Amino acid sequence: MKYRAILSSLSIALFSLSLAGCNDNDNQENVVSTPKQPNILFIMADDLGYSDLGAFGGEIHTPNIDSLAQEGRLLTDYHTAPTCSPTRSQLISGTDHHLAGIGAMAELTPEHLKGQPGYEGYLNERSLSIAQVLKDNGYRTYISGKWHLGLTPESNAHAKGFDHSFTLLQGLDHHFKQAPSAFKRNSTYTEDGQIIPISALPDDFFSTNYFTDKLLSYLDSGKNSGKPFFAYAAYTAPHWPIQAPAEYREKYHGVYDVGYDAIRNARIARQKQLGIIPANFDAAEPIATQNAPQEYGKWDELTAGQKALEARKMEIYAGMVENLDANVGRIIQYLKQNNLYDNTLIFFVSDNGAEGFVRGGYGSESGFDNSVANVGTPTSYHYIGPRWAEVSAAPFHLWKDTAGEGATTAPAIVKLPNQKKAEATNHSFASVLDVFPTLLEYAHIPVPQDQYNGRAINTPSGISWKPLLENKTDTIRPANFSFADELHGSKYAKQGEWKIALQGRPELGTGTWELYNIKLDRGERQNVAQLYPAKVQELLSVYQKYTEKNGVQEYNAK
């Protein structure tokens, strides 16, 4: 514990020093021009919470990702879709996920929506692929990791512009090759469009390690081509099941014995010290103190056995995140050793907020041993659960697949080519939709409009971050901009400093539209819908226009 406490204090000191010299819009000497096409490395974690990284206030040891922050810029108001495949569709297509074909996750699409336009369950024919555009303009293009945008050859990453691809087609898998024989594994891997049987994976397969191996092999295969690269590292960590390599399972022994609230409060305090959130930020109220089901219990009400299991799950989760960081470090080291790092535009993000739901479990009937001593091994199957998800999502409300800020606010770090020191943390709204035009602008490629190579497309709708990243503006959107989204019955709309939200699961909200002033109350503590009914109606109009523009249909059939 003492080692971790010292490490955390040193991390805060280092970040404070690295950011202390950054002033808004007056650090032009650190901004470099990119006269030639830069390499692009886009790293996406899976279900990584807002506060998990050291750079965002976490106690988990993430020096490699943090180093990107020390040479780049933090975006503290970066938004995704509420879950994974919708976000990934927006990244690849640059359009709202309802337009891209992922109006709902394929595995969660109700019968009345299956096959409907926008609910195809794969990246549809109207969707452009960022990889295809980059490839057509001189880039070599690679992906390794989770695809989750289609199961057929036509919807495979190999058919969407990636020169080389190693992909998990579904939304999750066991992180090890080994699994209990009774476990019915429903996962498919492909390489360059060809199915790779799980039996063909190496015996020491661990998802994060192997995805990195593959990506590095692709980068190495083309390093003498003279072409820039677009490399998409699409990790499945720390998505459930919570598992980690043996050497990472004891690194956090005892750290989480203090319970949910102690860890969460410490993270929030560090976020304030680092300038991630204002010193007067009023964090979301933990759901255990609200009217919620019994499974959202308080730490002090758990038995000794329950505490041991809960703490152990978070120890393994932290080990998964540290392993993820080590693999990011492997990529960074490769780029530096091959003189590629300086001319590489690097993004690190998560695909959504932390996972708080328990979506069905596997126990002894499937050959798993879910005892405390076995957590994190290939023969265990666990989730972190809602209370640890609240810790990961700190300081925000709720988690993945809801309408809370904790679902759609993700950590984001951007490092420009040749950037050597941190730029001022940016607190303006940004969206995963913005990545598409940002990448193309840095690559000196115009964003296609309406048609591409003779076929009709949905025009990408985001806004390039380039002026913001190069200190030419503080924000890329007007003060009263509007934004909305819907997924699985959870809905929200924002305009200016206001937000309305309706939770798809009534037990997580009031069952009606809630209203928050997110400039003053981004923790979503004070629902003021009854005080400002006209404002609710105004934002309902914003939401209605969004649904009409993007073909949103009601998820819950009447």
From TrEMBL:
<dbReference type="InterPro" id="IPR024607">
    <property type="entry name" value="Sulfatase_CS"/>
</dbReference>
<keyword id="KW-0378">Hydrolase</keyword>
<dbReference type="GO" id="GO:0046872">
    <property type="term" value="F:metal ion binding"/>
</dbReference>
<keyword id="KW-0479">Metal-binding</keyword>
<dbReference type="InterPro" id="IPR000917">
    <property type="entry name" value="Sulfatase_N"/>
</dbReference>
<dbReference type="InterPro" id="IPR017850">
    <property type="entry name" value="Alkaline_phosphatase_core_sf"/>
</dbReference>
<feature type="signal peptide">
    <location>
        <begin position="1"/>
        <end position="20"/>
    </location>
</feature>
<comment type="similarity">
    <text>Belongs to the sulfatase family.</text>
</comment>
<dbReference type="GO" id="GO:0004065">
    <property type="term" value="F:arylsulfatase activity"/>
</dbReference>
<keyword id="KW-0732">Signal</keyword>
<keyword id="KW-0106">Calcium</keyword>
<dbReference type="InterPro" id="IPR050738">
    <property type="entry name" value="Sulfatase"/>
</dbReference>
<protein>
    <submittedName>
        <fullName>Arylsulfatase (Aryl-sulfate sulfohydrolase)</fullName>
    </submittedName>
</protein>
<feature type="domain" description="Sulfatase N-terminal">
    <location>
        <begin position="38"/>
        <end position="445"/>
    </location>
</feature>
<dbReference type="Pfam" id="PF00884">
    <property type="entry name" value="Sulfatase"/>
</dbReference>
